[in-house]
């Protein structure tokens, strides 16, 4: 059994999905899965090439991780079953691409939980910054929703847009110049590619960050809200088993994983409180 794993970008979230998938696969299928991983490197041309390489190996199943990878899988996979994960909305990710062979797990954004974490900081921030790439529909949707959430919390959202990761440091410098008290890290491909860079720059600027992945606690986030993507991978394995058993006549199934997890970095929070006292 060959499972081609194609991720929009190499990321700890993708790793967690694959780990969960492999653990659950052993409990739901007789055949051992041979995982062949392909990295889309966060840009359209590389992702298209990675998916083409995956298809040439004629896998039994494609596990597509990330919205862009899911869309590309739907465009290239034809009759081959696809299981998508690491995606807010499968239908929106696919757009006009064919979806008749797409099974998958939807994981909603954690924006509401991140806003609540930011509002709970002591002292309470008056201005929160965000860096995002407006070319990404996912980023646009999160920012549009966040504007209302921050407004309701009495916090001003200060936005700074970028085209690519080369602009991240300058964007953060500009937000610091505009007097932000903290940074909200949203979930999009461009910012994900620059995650380490973002945390390093914010540390230098002494700007606390609320992140969107468990691994970011080690990077210096004061708090994070995230989805258990290992569990998403486990559920993806269950759907993969069903997809392969159903063959061509089965109707694709989709699930939604609604269980955000919140973690606070107590050491960073104490440091922040002492600095701002």
List the helices and strands and how they pair.
Blueprint: E1 2-7, H1 12-28, E2 34-39, H2 44-56, E3 61-65, H3 67-76, E4 82-85, H4 90-94, E5 102-106, H5 111-119, E6 127-132, H6 137-152, E7 156-161, H7 168-177, E8 182-184, H8 189-193, H9 195-205, E9 209-211, H10 216-219, E10 223-226, H11 229-246, E11 254-256, E12 261-264, H12 266-276
Parallel strand pairs: 1-2, 1-3, 3-4, 4-5, 5-11, 6-7, 6-8, 8-9, 9-10
Antiparallel strand pairs: 10-12
Helix pairs in contact: 1-11, 2-3, 5-6, 7-9
Description:
- This protein has 2 domains: 2-108 and 228-259, 3-Layer(aba) Sandwich (Rossmann fold), CATH 3.40.50; 111-225, Rossmann fold.
- Helix content is 47%, strand content 20%.
- The chain has helices at residues 12-28, 44-56, 67-76, 90-94, 111-119, 137-152, 168-177, 189-193, 195-205, 216-219, 229-246, 266-276, and strands at 2-7, 34-39, 61-65, 82-85, 102-106, 127-132, 156-161, 182-184, 209-211, 223-226, 254-256, 261-264.
- The longest helix has 18 residues, at 229-246.
